[in-house]
Amino acid sequence: MTLRLCGNYFFELSQDNLQPRRNEDTKISQRKNTQNIIQSLMPHKKYTHLFFDLDNTIWDFNSNSYDALYVALDKLQLLGLIGSYDDYFKIYSEVNANLWDLYRQGSMTKKVLSVQRFEESFEKNGTPLNIGGAIVNATYLEEMPLQTKLVEGARKVLDYLHGRYDVAIITNGFKEVQYEKILKSELSKYFRKIFVSEEIGAQKPKKQIFEYAIKSMNAPKNSSLMIGDSWEADIIGAMNFGIDQIYFNPQIEQNEWTGHFFSSINQNIIDILEGTPHFLDNSMRLNNNKSTETAIISDLHQLIDFL
User: Fold this and answer.
1) pLDDT digits over 118-169, tens only?
2) Residues of the chain with CATH 3.40.50.1000
């Protein structure tokens, strides 16, 4: 399914809208129909510069983090301590996400985050760490770049974009890990530049990181596009800076929307979020006065249909 902000309207292109015949080769026919409908709804816009988020947009952070932490805890002989690894990983993921929110807001340092995410998650698991959180963090970060799973369709899409567009990465994260992820996953050739928040001194969604990237790439704002999986960091950030965005969310297909569109929103983020289902964060209350376009996709292959 694809949503597109067209002027003052959000259009939903779902399976019901596209009316596929069940006995057809559905994936191919649906993608062709999606492309035709998008082109009929939207005036063609020429993009020259594409800015990608890294984690969970290109590099499969969820899968790779799961595997890397398992290996790290095994090396440190901690697997036997925690009981169910899946249960512990859920606790860790929640703790880590909350601490990263604080880090993005400037309320927590990298050093504290790195240690506390393990000490707190082990404590909440009922199995307090018998070694320092810094040791677990260091072992985990060593394993992270060795995991090289990509989001489904990522390499195929990057192959298509390579040589056709000027492509860069804008990522929040620790510089010592992000560059190694890209290198070990053989992604370097696809990106002219890599912008890591820690080096620039500003994290998404702050405008400074988008401004730095745009200027460094000599990219016109009106022909630049941000693609990412975080509504707050990638989409709100790019929207408020004034460049178009594509929100990538593979879970959208699981929502039961049919023939729905949002009207009269005038690109005001409050109105967008008041009328949207739960996969957007309704707690966000940020105004946007920029004239930009927003698209929502559930499959990276759909990106090609927009370009």
Assistant:
1) 999 999 999 999 999 999 999 999 999 999 999 999 999 999 999 999 999 9
2) 2-60+150-306
Token pair listed for 112:
């504290």
CATH superfamily of 2-60+150-306: HAD superfamily/HAD-like (3.40.50.1000)
* C-alpha distances in Å from residue 59, one per residue of 129, 276, 290: 29, 27, 30
- Which two structure tokens, joined as six digits, stand for 15? 């399976």
Read off the DSSP letter of residue 84.
-
Does 100 score more than 70 pLDDT?
Answer: yes
pTM for the whole structure:
0.80
**Two structure tokens written together for 243:** 């460049």
Burial class (CB in 10 A: 0-12, 13-18, 19+), 129: buried
Over 80: is that where the pLDDT of 242 sits?
yes
Q: Is 61-146 a CATH 1.10.150.240 domain?
A: yes
Copy the structure tokens of residue 13: 């292109």
User: DSSP string of 196-241?
Assistant: EHHHHT--TTSHHHHHHHHHHHT--GGGEEEEES-IIIIIIHHHHH
